[in-house]
Amino acid sequence: MSSLSGRCVLVGVTGGIAAYKSADLVRRLIEHGAMVRVAMTASAVQFISPLTLQSVSGQPVHDALLDIDSETAMSHIELARWADQIIVAPATADFIARLATGLADDLLSTLCLATQAQIAIAPAMNHVMWDNPATQENIATLRDRGVDILGPDTGSQACGETGPGRMVEPEALLRWLTSQTDDQLLTGLSVLVTAGPTWEALDPVRGLTNQSSGKMGYAVAIAALKAGAKVNLISGPTALSSPPGVPTCRVTTALDMLSAVDAQVSDVDIFVSVAAVSDYRPEAHQTQKIKKHAASFNLELVRNPDILATVAGRSSPPFTVGFAAETDEPVAQARRKLEAKKVDLMVANQVGGENSPFGRDDNALILVESQSETDLGRGSKQALAQCLVREIASRYHAKYSAPGS
Question: What are the residue numbers of the active site?
């Protein structure tokens, strides 16, 4: 039986070209046992017929706040109370702005304002609209209010341009929705997550670091907390606020991070190493700024300790998960690290190129084990973290419920 069986899902459809994907999402939800209702905005019906969505859902489509039929059968308040989950896919820039403002001038915005269910949106718009500061402020407002932001994906768009703004594919949305029903898979367990870059000082001004924003690691910490775990986060230098409910230890260097991990890992059931730790550090730290005199400059580096391998090599290691950020052959490189470091699970994360995840809200992950791999696809880091935590929980319980474990 699917974990969505019997779950009441309200699918909101707004007026974007990606509305054609909504029918596929509704169909998939029905196939997985969910009870689905559809609410459309006035502009959405210009892109896809209500009859199409009624046919795939098997239920009347709601498209007007004061529709007589819907009011006699199920008022907007009753519909808002009926839903266990609301997902708006696609969510246009206009709808996102109205939702952030708290408007209730049509059925869908009213449902979102009147519901106590969790709300998720799958943005879909031109990439310039997505990058506009007004849209980003609205997204930040909704995220702060607990709305789940799923995507957008990056790629070619209906306007002929390319960039972030494509609606996340229905299959990925379904995976995320499925993961939401398993919200207590880590109850009673302790999870330690590392996130962000490290900073290895060369002098008081300069240092060695990388482009990691910490967003993926923070998303994993939040997802583990939602799954019922006791979570601690060790973060390198980022611009992110500490996740609510997650004690966060701030560190700077790789040695700082190792020390913080050593201090906490003994009492941990699961260790997830998402941080992009500098492989090397300057052999000597200059106390004064190095002046620009010579035409060339030689820098001596020494290798930093491998935090993931150190944890996996303990006499009684926790269930250990690592991230492998690679520019080429990510699966092969991740499997090599899996075997060399003797970790339980490695997550291949391709970096570089136009889809590099550094600093962005989306990513693409592949779970790598000794004889297999599981492609989680591309999606928002938030959604991928939910899927990843579910996969980790499944493997953890399989390992430690086995005879002799």
Answer: 159
